[in-house]
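Researcher: Going back to the complex we discussed earlier. I've cleaned up the inputs and rechecked each line, so this should be the final set. Can you rerun the prediction on the complete assembly and write out the structure?
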Amino acid sequence: MKEVIVIGSGFGGAIAAKRFAEAGHRVTVLELGEDWRDLRKAQQSQDPRYLFRLLRNYPHEPLRTKPRLIVTQGMGYGGGSLVYSGIHMRAPQQAFDGWPAGWTRARLDPYYARVEARLAVAPMADTFEFGRPKAFAEGARKAGLPPARPNPLAMAGCTRCGWCVPLCGFGKKVTMQHTYLLDAERTGRLTVLVHRKAAYVTRARNRYRVWSWRTDGVAKEYHRVAGADLPLEHRDADIVVIAGGAIESPVLLARSLAAPPPRGSEPLRAFSTRRLGREQDGTGDFVQGGFVPQHVDGYKGSVMMSHVDLGDYVLEDLHGVPVGAAVTLGARLPSVGKSWGRAYKESFRDYGAHMLAIGVVGKQGAGTERTMAVRDDGGNAAIEDRPYTPAPGALEAARSIITALGGQVAVTPWELSGSAVTVHPTGGCAMGDGPDDVVRASDLGVRENPGLYVIDGSVLPANPLRNPSHTIAAVAERALDVILGVHRPEAWPA
Amino acid sequence: MRRRSFLLGGAILGGTGTALIACQSWTRPITRAEPVSPHELETLSAMAETFLPGGDGAPGATEVNALGVIVDPAYGVNPYISEVVSDLDEWCLVAYHGLFSSLSPEQRELALEQRMGLRGRAIQSLYLPVYEGILALTKLAFFGALSNKAGTSYIGFPGASRGYAPGSAAGAYASAQPLPIARGGASELRVAGAGLVSAARATAYVTSGDDVHATLRIRAPDGRHHDIPIRAEGGDGLVDDVSLPLAGGPAAGAWRLEIAAHAAGSGRLELWSIRLRTDLDDRAVQP
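Model: Rerun complete. Updated structure for the full complex:
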């Protein structure tokens, strides 16, 4: 039995926790956010007081700095799965261009299938009976786009009430804390420590030592740490899995390499950092909305129920979140003239009935691919401000659906503020077989540091061109097969 | 320093769908509340009701307890309340010869527009971010804070879906009113809309500190019922989306859940829901 520390509990961390625990090892999960398993607590997640605790923004104060790109990530026990849309789309073959030799869609398919089985992924049989996907499908057909198809969803037992952003009010969104982490708990070998932000990973004798800050609940430390002011604690382990996501994981590694090690421990063994925290993508996230004559009931149904596949990107019908809509439309409503009064309520209800929002996920605009970069800023992850644009034709395709329905295209938040938003960052610790690749392609081990792994979205060497959760989970399953000896590394030749 | 950073701040930004909420200084959670005087509460209430009036058959700021959200220290407007109320009152004394709370609805609206820069930046308040914060929190109380569902119920979220077929009663209906198992009792869901039930499913969630052995009887509007046994042994019990053999009757009306406890401890029913589909939905044309 070995001691394993897993930093983060999203798609990578949860799968690592389960696999190591089921293999007989003792696992400790460190999670920055809090525990959301209590259904009564989850039911409050639409309330902004609770919503703030589920999301981290990079940069932390985006409106003041007015960056061209804002990254929003979920946090809490379950990581990104708490706030994701339950969508499990396999990456298309062309997404694997630029991946290390041997990694193909066909080779990853069994791992996709394994994840789908555990998360009960299935399309909703009645998808196109809902106003929103129904109008979306009709618009796509009229615009001459490929037919809309139901999304594969981890939403078993969904009540279609619309209360699933970010957490399902009925506990129907299949998240990590209800599946993989629950499997780990059932072994009796899992310890969960929430409110812990990993500060450094160092070496201590022949083991690893993980130093963490203890954050205090809903205080500001959720969003920004001031390292010197917070108590630092440490734990030792034989194996450490860094799974903090594409923003936090590369920054944790960079901080661990740069900071002088606390007394009694040694720094990590040096490796090339030329690609560490660089060459990241935002998976081309954009939103285009518009008002259509059809009754689309934008607040109902699950977050994104169907998609139109356009190869390098997909268009998806998107849930209109009341909180988001309240503050977005609250800026100024042209039809009202100012942002309050009785007319505002009417406009808002009309928004829910007739606003068709379309999400774009996939390739990014030329010149913005693999340009995102992160760095450490005194214990906090900072994003270097880079341009971020959608794939050519993506927003035009989304607009064509709205206009084909006889609707009016709305101004996007991106056009209004100049800031784009992604919720799907990838890369930063890209796997590969070259000397500058941060982790090995075979088992996602950090170079020169045996027993230290990175298993999350940061290892993806290229944009998966689809909502990335499924690919992150499948890659994690594959890596753990190798780490735990189910497959030898050479079992997946080029 | 804190005030300076605050004055540099702005407003909340939300992104549709992904629910981006950007944290500005005044929205960052803090834990310490500053005392608020009765006059300040009265003024804040008047401001909120000006932003989002009721009395038109729809809930307003008062009905959704916007005041409770505005003064909540979690949102960060709280430390600036005394200053923004003074700022507004001073302006109103000069411009209207009275405190804000004593003005007519029309004067209140005009005063707020003046201090918020909608009538020219020259008379805009230096505390504009606080005014915008109070406006945003009033709206969030209405549309976002589900601790009071008056606003979200008004827009139909969360609630019965109208997306299946026009006028259909199909959708999900839920009650989160806790009900002690030991006392028995009943809970009722009112369903409106047209159509005969073609499929019905139920979910119920029971929490307990000890063993509970009970029967949940779900009664349709036409009087037919279906019994669901539930066992929660020293923990929580979930009836997970079970099918109800109650098709054929009208969907609209009162759906009741009645509890018959056989071995009841301290458990209670936390929530229950039904999901309905009607013959109108079955006839809906698919694309």
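Model: Worth noting: Residues 168 and 194 of chain B are 5 Å apart (CA to CA).
Researcher: Good, that matches what I expected from the previous run.
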